[in-house]
Design brief:
The chain is an alpha+beta fold. It is built from 21 helices and 20 strands. The strands form nine sheets. A three-stranded mixed beta sheet has the order 2-1-3.
């Protein structure tokens, strides 16, 4: 199964794809936040840095074949403590700059840490407007007095006058009712432990972000243990803290306990907040989850403490709230707290009879051709509050542009199922069918993309391949947890039957598999399955989630993995597929911007909403796996949505790299890793920060986003995490 912080790739592959051609233009501004002086003297075989500049040898600058360089004199003080004028190898820059920056950002309130003892900081929502009352609510589970007392003590000690403490109704109110209006409001959901936020505008613990952040915390802890005399960046002082043989294990232990505490937070959410890991710990996220990693994350934490027992003493955090005798070791923890919650969350996505609120059947489970499949469908009602009540530039007016799109493109709205011109406001013209898909898109994590229609209108009508594979992996992890805890009183009935696991595997490799030809030529892939109701919306392009079955253990057949690799390295067949999709039934070109057969862009129609600003430009033919790219693009379709071409996101890099490695494609996995390392290092040297996504053709530029928030967000949790893992795989 995929591991945390692996050291699996041979060093012979470490620099296999380093120094390949990249694309676009980087400026010389640098503001890296990092560690010890590392300037080196260029040899005859090395590039020569211009006076007063830093050249990163082996890291190609966007736009050509030259090595990346920046003006040292204009760099802020902290970059000057990690490098010096002259030539430095990319590995040195990573060791002395990028990695120490990451290792320090996790564990500081001035960075990404939100401390449990300072709960009021997280209570202030950076997405929503402040409530009319002028007070930010903090909610705790109704009847859980330990949580209530904890919050009141923290608020009292903080002397904050803009916080109000409230109990959640027990049971939770039904969405769409008067009491259910609570899900459209601001409010932080209490969690018992500190946590790491993604960064930027995201000031809460998120569902699948937290899995990758946990990966990063564990990888950082491992890095610190391997480099006990290194340093890490302190964002509060913009200085560096030097570790030693005594303090390094202490710091690594803090990182580990933070990762475990975040998983315990997720268990708390499952227990008290709807039987799922919430999209985020805000009350408006109570009706939706995200891609499920809970059991896999638990196994990662368990495996890490087995490897480093001296720095991972067991610390209990949940017993006062769960009302149980506190576990004293990790096996008891798995038995008493993790296994029951893992199975509850698994059932949320897979059990047809697992319902909450007033649904008669589980809306996330459908039957297709006699096979059971899972969806990201949510239980909420109405539009997403983070859009209707947003204080984020770019979100306001989104639903109005959606309504305009349906009005101008009736073929995207068959039978008026998503929009009806009733003379009311744009938000009232959009139907609940559309809003359920919109919320489903956000629950999927891939928000927004054109994967299920230009505005995601078909999202609630598709079973995604990634969810099927993640459920399969969860089942394997649950059974491993039950096996480990078998002598600690775990309920053996929590195990997933082998017959169910085999049925899931067979469904994935048959119903969700497209074989373009008997020979497995380019175009073969795992894809999503339409479940209706309504007319089928064809899937026009390959999405990066085709790598997820390769990431999940013991799932992808060798022949299918080879076929996906062939598809991922080819561009022409996919481009032709895009061209065919671009034309609507009325012959008009849909408002997508696509890389055509010869690299030309297909234009949006003038005046259409969210038409990308790059229309008319030429984009080189591309592929998912390309040594010239800075990472793997999410798709090959440029829609203006942030989860589409040319943007690279950390989760796709993890799925692609680990999936390829699991399937025996070591060199291709190394190419993915190196592309991501290049992307983050270029962006970091360019802007002095790490962000949530990068254009694969130019990570020094802003991502081309016209739908949703356009500004890239700095921090950034999962970017940091996947960078560390990629670096460890390639450098050991």
């Amino acid at each position: 199964m995929p591991t945390f912080g692996p050291k699996r790739a041979a060093n012979s592959n470490a620099r296999l794809f380093r120094g390949r051609r990249l694309a676009a233009v980087a400026t010389a501004a640098c503001a890296a936040l990092v560690l010890a002086a590392c300037g080196s003297t260029a040899s005859d075989s090395q590039p020569t840095a211009a006076p007063g500049t830093v050249t990163i040898a082996g890291l190609k600058a966007p736009g050509g074949n030259s090595d990346l360089n920046f003006n040292f004199a204009s760099a802020p003080p902290y970059i000057k403590s990690c490098t010096a004028p002259g030539v430095v190898e990319q590995d040195q820059f990573a060791r002395n700059c990028t990695i120490p920056y990451i290792n320090g950002m996790w564990n500081s309130p001035a960075g990404l840490l939100r401390e449990h003892s300072n709960l009021v900081v997280a209570a202030r929502d950076w997405l929503l407007k402040k409530p009319a009352s002028g007070k930010w609510p903090i909610y705790y589970p109704g009847g859980v007095t330990a949580a209530r007392d904890d919050i009141n003590a923290i608020v009292k000690s903080s002397k904050a006058n803009d916080i109000v403490v409230r109990a959640l109704p027990n049971p939770l109110p039904i969405p769409g009712t008067k009491a259910g209006e609570i899900y459209q409001q601001a409010g932080l959901l209490y969690l018992p432990n500190s946590y790491v936020v993604p960064g930027g505008i995201f000031n809460e613990q998120y569902g699948w972000d937290s899995f990758f952040i946990a990966k990063g915390l564990l990888a950082s802890a491992e890095n610190v243990m391997a480099n006990r005399t290194g340093r890490y960046f302190d964002p509060a002082t913009a200085t560096f803290v030097t570790l030693n043989e005594q303090t390094a294990p202490q710091y690594a232990s803090q990182l580990f306990q933070l990762a475990k505490g975040m998983l315990d937070n997720a268990a708390f959410e499952i227990r008290f907040y709807g039987g799922m890991v919430n999209n985020g710990n805000r009350i408006y996220y109570l009706t939706r989850s995200q891609p499920p990693f809970f059991a896999h994350e638990a196994m990662a934490i368990y495996d890490f403490q087995k490897k480093y027992p001296d720095i991972t003493p067991y610390k209990e955090t949940l017993a006062p709230y769960f009302g149980i005798t506190a576990p004293t070791n990790y096996e008891e923890w798995l038995a008493k707290e993790i296994a029951p919650m893992a199975r509850t969350y698994f059932d949320y996505y897979t059990d047809p009879n697992h319902v909450i609120f007033n649904e008669k059947t589980n809306p996330r489970v459908k039957t297709v051709n006699g096979r059971q499949v899972s969806l990201y469908v949510t239980d909420g009602v109405g539009p997403a509050p983070e859009i209707t009540d947003s204080q984020v530039p770019g979100n306001e007016g989104f639903y109005a542009s959606v309504a305009a799109y349906f009005k101008n493109y009736p073929e995207a709205n068959p039978g008026g199922i998503f929009w009806r011109d009733n003379g009311k406001s744009a938000e009232q013209q959009l139907t609940e069918t559309y809003y359920r898909s919109d919320r489903t898109t956000r629950a999927s994590g891939y928000d927004l993309s054109g994967r299920y229609g230009y505005v995601g209108q078909w999202s609630a009508m598709y079973a995604p391949i990634d969810l099927q594979a993640l459920n399969y992996q969860s089942a394997l992890d649950i059974n491993q947890i039950v096996s480990i805890a078998k002598d600690k009183g775990v309920d053996g009935n929590l195990a997933v039957p082998d017959s169910q696991i085999e049925a899931m595997k067979d469904t994935i490799n048959s119903l969700f598999w497209i074989n373009s030809s008997a020979g497995g030529q380019p175009g073969s892939r795992w894809t999503d399955v339409f479940v209706g109701p309504g007319p089928t919306q064809p899937q026009p392009y390959t999405y990066g989630t085709t790598f997820v079955p390769m990431w999940a253990s013991k799932l992808a057949p060798e022949s299918s993995a080879k076929a996906v690799l062939a598809t991922a390295t080819a561009s022409t067949p996919i481009s032709q597929e895009l061209i065919a999709y671009a034309k609507g039934s009325n012959g008009k070109v849909r408002p997508f911007t696509l890389a055509g057969e010869n690299g030309q862009m297909l234009e949006c129609q003038k005046g259409q909403p969210n038409c990308p600003t790059v229309v008319g430009q030429t984009v080189p033919p591309d592929a998912f796996l390309d040594a010239n790219n800075y990472g793997v693009p999410t798709s090959l379709v440029m829609t203006g949505n942030q989860w589409d071409y040319p943007n690279a996101w950390a989760p796709i890099q993890a799925f692609a790299s680990e999936g390829l490695l699991n399937s025996g494609f070591t060199a291709e996995s190394a190419m993915v890793d190196q592309g991501w390392l290049n992307s983050v290092d270029v962006g970091f040297a360019h802007a002095g920060q790490i962000v949530e996504k990068y254009p694969t053709n130019n990570p020094a530029s802003s991502p081309p986003v016209t739908a949703g928030y356009s500004a890239d967000q700095a921090g950034f949790g999962w970017t940091n995490a996947i960078y560390l893992e990629a670096w460890q795989r390639q450098n050991g």
